[in-house]
Design brief:
Shape: globular
Order of helices and strands: HEEEEEHEEEEEHH
Number of helices: 4
Radius of gyration: 22 Å
Low-confidence stretches: 54-78, 80-87
Strand content: 15-25%
Largest sheet: 6 strands, mixed
Helix content: 10-25%
Length: 265
Amino acid sequence: MGSPFPGMDPYLEGEMWMEFHDTLANEIRGQVMQRLSERYVALLNKHYWLDDGALEIVSNARSSMYPDVHVVEASHVQEALAEYVVADTRERVLELVSPIPQEIPALSVEIRDVAERRLVTVIEILSPGNKRGKGWEQYNEKRAELLGTRTHLVEIDLLRAGRRIQLIGELPNAPYFVFLSRVQRRPRTQVYPIHLREKLPMIPIPLLRPDPDVTLDLQSAVDACFNLVHYERLLDYSAPPPLPELNPEDAQWVQEKIRAAALAK
């Protein structure tokens, strides 16, 4: 069946995101490799972002995670609380989670020239961990380093939540973006706004001069992820999409697409 949506599936923005993220990175690498000349190679690079978003409370109905908050009988935690004297074993003890930053692995795609192993282009797929807190700061440091080199940078942001990359000027009102920073055009960055109801765009991937760009069909890459994993079997389309909430018109459109897909089965 595939996704019920013509472009980005907003239900992927919840608990399935990291699995989808790495599957998409693999699909992008495979697609780009087919279009590169023998001068280049596309490699996967694993890096780690420091994610301190443990205290972001969003409901399970939105396909995300609550902090682990629950109440237990004191008799069940006596070993952990051995240093304390609990006068009344009927007393309830509240357990909350300490926000401990975690290193979250993520894949990016690097295009290098074969002869000199030069880093030509980096394709980043943004994740929740690098759109908030310390991970956002860490990502911006890496981004600033790349912008100071002769490396092209393509940033794919298919998440409505979190902070956008740092740019001077106001972004269009859109849920998703692709940002392209060409070496020859810096400090200018090309901005591709993507709306919920439209297909994902064809993105030019720049290489070394005088070689022409190759094209990344982002929609085809996402469709290939669904064909491989069948995310539609794993996503709970009976619940609202993950936060942030859609505006009423988009929320209605989402439900209409889901109902139409169900009737088409």
